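Hi there,

I know you've been waiting on this one. I reran it after we fixed the sequence typo, so this is the corrected version. Both the input and the resulting structure follow.
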Amino acid sequence: MGVVRSIPITIINRTHSDVQVYLVVDGTFGAPRTTGWTGIVGDLLDGSADLSFAPLSVTKQRSRHLDFSDPYFFSSISKLSSTK
């Protein structure tokens, strides 16, 4: 079981919380659109979701609208591609 799954399960079990877990309908983390945000960011902003445990990148755009916790994982993975 990965960290993204084990952290919320541990919190739920220790706090005896009643939660509903679901997958975001459009399957995305969230990008800005002219009508709002897609994905989990959109669900958080419109009140469909109260919180999210996901490998969601903190961006300037997202952080203007959402409160992020301190990161629990850092990766040094980089992506390089040719400009040709």
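Quick highlight: Residues 20-68 form one domain.

Best,
R. S.
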